[in-house]
Known about the structure:
By secondary structure, the chain is of the alpha/beta class. It has helices at about 30-45, 60-70, 80-90, 95-110, 120-145, 150-180, 180-190, 200-210, 215-225, 245-265, 265-275, 280-300; strands at about 5-10, 15-20, 25-30, 50-55, 75, 230-235, 235.
Amino acid sequence: MTKQVVGIDVGKEKLDVGRNNEKRVRVWANDAKGRAALGEWVVQQETPLVVIEASGGYEAAIVSELVGRGQAVALVNPTRVRAFARAEGLLAKTDKIDARLIARFGATMKPEPKARREQSQLELNQWVTRRRQLVLMVTAEKNRLQTVPEAIQVDIVRHIDWLQAEIERLEQRINQAIAHNPTWRETARRIETVPGVGAITASTLVADLPELGQLNRQKIAALVGVAPFNHDSGKRRGKRRIFGGRASVRSVLYMATLSATRHNPVIKSFYHRLLDKGKLKKVALTACMRKLLVILNTMVKSGQNWDPPMSSPSV
């Protein structure tokens, strides 16, 4: 008998669990006790794959629980699952329907499981994410500072000072964690040899893109979301667009690319060559982001530091 794929619809308070070719839906609480019980049940089923929709962070704990037990888990974009539902002609949407739908999606599409991450990797990812959140808060408070009465400005300035102190504390913790891990330390050091790439970009790549150096250039570009996809039909040739990927990595890569178009000889030359061909700046920058990512991927894979003659792989 073929083992069934498990689909989990994640909610704030509960986890609806279905299997392909089975109507029954089981429910566990989305708390430590419930996740542990669900993890034990999944292991007992010897299921080949658990498929979970990304749910704005609510899914993180159950993914960690299952991956920690050695279970193959695929985290998928909800857009793909809804497109699969439309292909099935399924318009209704409830938690129980979604759980079975996710399981059928997994059995049919066979999405790639997440690589297992050690606890230290998860913690580093959380610190980098928290730093990014605080930076956004600082920006929002600085924007408010321009429009509020003077009496409120004092309070906002105090809050900004506190946020910046917290950012510095997190950066110290991130730097210490990377320094104490030989693999992370070497990867970050190598990344920072590239003109235009700084410590924040390096730490984000170490935390949020552990696949760097392990995939080919097409897969790493698609994973980050800088691989252009065609939109052609018949004789019509639509614009190529990027889609999906890891927004946190793409954000720091964009800022690093802006710097690289001014200070990195390889990226600067490539950028101006595209502009001379009539490419829009946004299109040229996206192409440069992909080229920079491919260069970094090649460097980590080959164990080489920045070297302009070497750092011109085809994109």
